[in-house]
Design brief:
13 helices; 3-stranded mixed beta sheet; PH-domain like; about 350 residues; single chain
C-alpha cells in the first residue's frame, strides 16, 4: 500500500490553483491509498486527482506548504494543516525508499565487476599462467631453467664437484638406474641437507652423503626415491613462482628467462622442506624396475623413512641377485668426485 495505514482517509482544507496565475479556490485535500484527491468543499465533487508518488513539495521548510503533482505541473495546492503536511512528507519518504536505484545498482555492479577482474588478475591469472607455462615448456627450456637455478644455489653450496673420473662414474650411474631417460647427477659440497632435484631432470646429492655411504646401493636408493619425488610434483613450478609473473611472461613469449630471474632462489630452495616421501609400494617398484636391492637402502634409512622396514622385508631381490650397481673402481671414483 502506498499511503501509510495511519494516514489513510486523512483530510484537510487547502487552496488550489488550477494553473499559474489562476484564482485560488478552497478545496478539501483527501489522502487516499495511492492518490491525493482535491474536492469541492460544498458539493464534495472531485476536482482533480494526483498520484502520490508524483506529488512534490515545492517550498520545503516554508509555510503554508505548497504541493504540486510534479515539478512542471502548473497547478498546486497550499496546505497549512501540519498533520496533513507531515502525512504527505512521510508518505513521500516511504515511496522514495521503495524506489529502485538504478544508478546505485549500476555502481554496485560496476564495483563488483572491477573487484572481480582485479581479483582474477591478482590471484587467479598469475597462477594459471604459471601452470600453463609449466605444462608448455619444452625440455631444452627446462634444462636452461635448471642451470639458472643451480647457478644461484651454487652461491651457497659451492660449485658442483667436477672430478673427471667422478663425473664419468656419475653419468654411468645415471645410465644404469634410468636407462630410458638418464638424469644429470650433480654433487654439491656444502649446505645441501638431503638429496633434491631441479628442472631439467637434475638430481642433486650432498657430498657428505656419498662419502658416508657403505655401498653404491644406498646412493642408488636415494637417487631412485628423489626421481619419484620429481615426478610427483613438477620442479619447475616453484622456480616460476620465485621468478614472478613478469619473467614467466617473458619466458612464454621469448623462450628464455632473464639471467637474473633466479636471483635469490638458492636461499628459498635450501630452506624448503623436503617433498613428501613416496609410498612404500612406489619405492619398492622403483627398486624392482632398476634391478637394485632395496634392503641396503632400507637399513641405511631406518629411523628416518616410514618405508624402511618394508624395503628391508620386501626386497624384490631377496631370493635372487640383482644387477650390480657400480664396479668397485667406479664407486671409488664417484666417492672422490669432490677431490678436485
Amino acid at each position: 500500500m502506498t499511503a501509510l495505514k495511519k494516514y489513510q482517509r486523512l483530510e484537510a482544507s487547502g487552496l488550489w490553483r488550477e494553473r499559474p496565475g489562476a484564482q485560488a479556490r478552497d478545496v478539501i485535500v483527501g489522502l487516499r491509498e495511492a492518490t491525493l484527491v482535491l474536492s469541492d468543499p460544498r458539493s464534495e465533487a472531485p476536482l482533480t486527482q494526483w498520484s502520490l508518488p508524483a506529488t512534490q513539495r515545492m517550498n520545503p521548510g516554508q509555510m503554508p506548504a505548497r504541493f504540486a503533482p510534479g515539478l512542471d505541473a502548473g497547478e498546486e495546492v497550499e496546505i497549512d494543516d501540519t498533520e496533513m503536511i507531515t502525512a504527505l512528507e512521510t508518505v513521500h519518504r516511504s515511496i522514495e525508499r521503495r524506489k529502485p536505484r538504478p544508478g546505485r545498482l549500476r555502481g554496485v555492479l560496476t564495483a563488483t565487476f572491477v573487484l572481480t577482474v582485479a581479483a582474477v588478475a591478482l590471484f587467479w591469472l598469475p597462477g594459471q599462467m604459471k601452470s600453463y607455462a609449466a605444462r608448455m615448456l619444452p625440455a631444452p627450456t627446462r634444462v636452461d631453467l635448471g642451470a639458472l637455478a643451480l647457478a644461484d644455489i651454487a652461491r651457497l653450496t659451492g660449485q658442483p664437484c667436477k672430478s673427471v673420473p667422478g663425473r664419468r662414474a656419475a653419468a654411468a650411474l645415471a645410465e644404469r638406474l634410468f636407462p630410458e631417460a638418464p638424469p644429470r647427477i650433480e654433487v654439491l659440497r656444502d649446505a645441501l641437507p638431503a638429496p633434491a632435484h631441479l628442472p631439467g631432470d637434475v638430481l642433486l646429492l650432498p657430498a657428505g652423503l656419498i662419502e658416508a655411504a657403505d655401498s653404491p646401493d644406498v646412493i642408488a636408493g636415494h637417487l631412485l626415491i628423489e626421481r619419484l619425488r620429481s615426478e610427483a610434483a613438477d620442479p619447475v613450478r616453484p622456480l616460476l613462482d620465485h621468478m614472478g609473473i613478469g619473467a614467466t611472461l617473458r619466458l612464454l613469449t621469448s623462450g628464455a628467462a632473464p639471467a637474473e630471474a633466479a636471483k635469490g632462489y638458492g636461499e628459498a630452495f635450501l630452506a624448503r622442506a623436503p617433498a613428501p616421501e613416496p609410498t612404500a609400494d612406489l619405492q619398492r617398484a622403483a627398486f624392482e624396475t632398476a634391478q637394485v636391492s632395496s634392503a641396503l637402502y632400507g637399513q641405511a634409512m631406518r629411523g628416518t623413512s616410514a618405508a624402511a622396514e618394508t624395503l628391508i622385508s620386501d626386497d624384490p631381490f631377496a631370493l635372487g641377485a640383482p644387477l650390480r650397481v657400480m664396479s668397485d673402481e667406479s664407486w671409488l671414483e664417484f666417492q672422490a668426485i669432490c677431490s678436485e
